[in-house]
Amino acid sequence: MAQPPRPSGPQKPPRPSAAAASSQPNDRRALLEAYQDVVRSEAEKKAAGPPVREGPASRAPFWVVTLLLAAGLSALLLLRPPWLFTSPPPESRAMQEASLRVQMFVEIDRLERFRTQAGRAPASATEAGLGAGSDLTYEPTPSGYRLTGRNGPVTLTYNSGTPPAEFLGNAYQVVRARGGQ
Question: Which of 176, 161, 162 minimizes the C-alpha distance to 99?
Answer without folding.
Answer: 176
